Amino acid sequence: MDIKPCRNKWPGTMTDRERFNNQMHYRPVDRCFNMEFGYWQENFTLWPLFVDNGVASNEAADRFFNFDRIAGIGGNTWMHPAFPSTVVEETETMQIIMNGDGLTAEIPRDGHDTIPHYIKASVVTPEDWKRVKAERFQRDDPVRRVDVERIRRHHPPDRDYPLGCDCGSMIGRIRNMLTFEGLAYATHDYPDMVEDMVETCCVLVEDALDQILPHVDVDFATGWEDICFKNGPIVSLDYFTRVIVPRYKRIGDKLHAHGIDLWYTDCDGDVRPLLPGFMEAGINCLFPYEVNSCVHPAELLKEYGKDLRIMGGFDKIEMIKGKEAIRRYMESLVPLVERGGYIPFCDHRCPPDVKPDDYLYYLDLKEKMFGMQ
């Protein structure tokens, strides 16, 4: 279904690519880069402005709101083939499933967004990992060959939007496969196994970058970890520094060799203990930067200066409170947008608790404050 935009694109005198690169490198811009991270799945069935206009995905919502364009590419840097997704058991309200990471989990039958209750992992011991690695993490798997020419056709060098290259996950997806508790135990019980898993992830990312970076003009790098919660990281800082940071550095060296000096990672929770290691390795941007489990973005940007960038950081809890709270919080972000290296948007997927009218007010206010004057 064709999506008709509900609002005009913010006026500007620069391309989206020029604007993004200038803003994230503290150079002059015509206006703020305009983007959002997306919405919970429930928003697409509960918000009338989505339902009435056939908007059923985050990609469609980006077109509906006419945001600036930003795109991403990458290779297959994780498990292949995935475990078969199957329903193991059903009750009136719940399903017990096996997911693609090999986890047996309990989820609600109605499909609403929630963190699954994990029951069992397929990888627990080094013997489990040896088998799964041989079956599902082969470097020479044909699926790991990147179709560079196809990427170049879809994202030509003269494009007018920024393009990111995925640098995978060194430990976050391992957490997905082992579970939160499983990873915590494994780093103590089987540290060599976990390090081999991290090394495997790193090598697969390096293989993809070696295929892509010499041939595609990339603006920034991306990653995904999600290894923090409100009390900090779920792995010890010592383990993170000894095992994970050196792998980040290897990836960072490849990026820097191809002129890529902006690298964000998606890591929720209180990331402050990990920031020195991130930045030492070249990860210099946080995305989508959750506020409630950390601090207002101004505090981190003051502490790290222009070495750090942040994308996101508009407190969704304040957005839920309504227009006056939205206005107050937006005003607190003005100095950050003015300094550069910061792009404001909801600090994770926008939840359905936000009233659609308040969300439209938020978009209008953001344009009024950060669009062209």
CATH topology value of the largest domain: TIM Barrel
* Nearest-integer average pLDDT: 95
Low-confidence stretches are: none
Order of strands across the main sheet: 1-6-7-10-11-12-13
Number of strands: 13
How much helix is in the residues?
A: 40-55%
Structure class? alpha/beta
Q: Just give the CATH class of the largest domain.
A: Alpha Beta
Tell me what the CATH architecture of the largest domain is.
Answer: Alpha-Beta Barrel
Distance between the termini: 34 Å
The Cα radius of gyration reads 21 Å
Number of helices: 15
- Gross morphology: globular
SSE order: HHHHEEEEEHHEHHHEEEHEHEHEHHEH
Strand content: 5-15%
Task: Characterize the main sheet.
Answer: 7 strands, parallel
Counted up, domains total 2
Layout: helices, strands, pairs:
Blueprint: H1 16-24, H2 43-46, H3 48-51, H4 58-64, E1 71-73, E2 86-90, E3 94-98, E4 104-108, E5 117-120, H5 126-136, H6 148-154, E6 163-166, H7 172-178, H8 180-189, H9 191-212, E7 220-224, E8 228-229, E9 232-233, H10 237-257, E10 263-266, H11 275-281, E11 285-287, H12 297-304, E12 309-311, H13 316-321, H14 323-339, E13 342-343, H15 356-370
Parallel strand pairs: 1-6, 6-7, 7-10, 10-11, 11-12, 12-13
Antiparallel strand pairs: 2-3, 3-4, 4-5, 8-9
Helix pairs in contact: 7-8, 8-9, 9-10, 10-11, 14-15
